[in-house]
Every structure is written in structure tokens, then in C-alpha cells.
Amino acid sequence: MDKIKGMKSKISPYSDENLLVITSNCQTHGIASSLKMMLPNSASIPIWALSGLEYIVEEINSKVKRGFIWVTSLNTEQQDAVIRRLNFKPTNILQIPEIFFDAFHPDMTYVQLKNGEILNSNQYSSLMMEQQKVKEYLSSKSDSQFAMNQLEMQKVREG
Predict the structure, then answer these.
(1) Closest CA to 134 of 159, 109, 103, 99
(2) Where does residue 116 fall: left (phi above 0), alpha (psi -120 to 50 degrees), or beta otherwise?
(3) What DSSP string describes 63-127?
(4) Pick from 53, 62, 52, 67: which is nearest to 16 by CA?
(5) Residue among 62, 58, 86, 71 nearest 19 (CA)
(6) Sign of torsion over alpha carbons 99, 105, 106, 111
(7) Cα dihedral sign, 23-24-26-29
(8) Residues facing 43 on adjacent strands
(9) Highest mean pLDDT: which of 7-16, 25-34, 70-79, 141-150?
(10) By the 8 A CB rule, do 142 and 115 touch?
(11) What is the pLDDT of residues 15-65, one digit of tens each?
(12) Mutual orientation of helices 76-83 and 53-63 as an angle, nearest 10°?
């Protein structure tokens, strides 16, 4: 077994315990990498949970051919909905909290108009999407120069 800071890993390379399926938000790959470092005999399948429950089911069913440990930030109701449709069930579920870290989204931006309103379409607000929203807004409003200045200032701040 591989040693981790003087301790032996308790995961056998031949058990279901060495297959980890990780479902979470944008932290999924970081969580998978961290677990791989702590459990070097493990294999991991990171699945981005924000793609939807159907996607999670399809990914697990296409990649998993035996029991596995499921590390997930999904709530219990979502977990149950996924498990009902899996070909192979998890041998254990480790619920983890959702972790939010804005640095994974350097393109996120919001445009504030002169009246204080935030121009937002209630979806992921990347700079590219915001540009389109500003163009649409400008075609219907007279405060166009202020909105364009706000967008340009945001571009400069993001480098």
C-alpha cells in the first residue's frame, strides 16, 4: 500500500472502495484531485453536477461497472432520484458541502445601470453573455453611454 505521511492507505486496489464518483459544482475536479492525493490507490470519476441529474445518471451508468463510493454535494432528494436509475448502486455515500470560490469564474460580471439596477438575465453571467444583454438593453433604452462605460470598466478590472 502507498504511504500517506507515515500512514498506510486502507483502500484495497481490488475493492469497490477504490472507485470514487464525485459530483459537485465547479469544485468537482479539485475535490477529485485532492482525494486522489490522499487515496493514491483510488480511481475517480468527476461529474459536474450542474449539468443536471439526467447527465449524472448517464455518466455513472456509462462509466461505472461495479459498486462505488459516491462523494457528492447533491441533497438527499437529488441523490435518491439518481440512485433509483443507476445500474450499479453506491456502496457508500459521502455527502460534502457545496463550496463556492469565485476565482473559478473570472469571467463573471454584472452591469450596474445609472439607476442602480443590475442588468441580469437570471442565468450564469459571464462577460460574453453580459455583452449581449447590454446590446439588447441599449437597443431599448436611452441610457446607452452609461451602460457601455460600465461594461468597459468591468473589462479593464478583469484584465
Answers:
(1) 109
(2) left
(3) H--S-EEEEE-S-HHHHHHHHTT-SS-EEEEEE------GGG-TTB--EEPTTS-EE--SS--BH
(4) 67
(5) 71
(6) negative
(7) negative
(8) 19
(9) 70-79
(10) no
(11) 456 899 999 988 898 899 999 999 988 899 999 888 889 999 999 999 998
(12) 50
Instruction: Classify 14 as helix, strand or coil.
Output: coil
**What does the alpha-carbon distance between residue 110 and residue 62 come to, in Å, rounded to a whole number?**
38
**Residues 138, 147 contacting (CB under 8 angstroms):** yes
How sure is the predictor about 151, in pLDDT bands with cuts at 50, 70 and 90?
low
Of residues 103 and 89, more confidently modeled: 89
Q: Would you say 137 and 147 are in contact if contact means Cβ atoms under 8 Å apart?
A: yes
3-class SS of residue 1? coil
pLDDT digits (tens, 9 = 90+) for 121-135: 445 555 555 566 566
65: closest CA among 14, 31, 19?
19
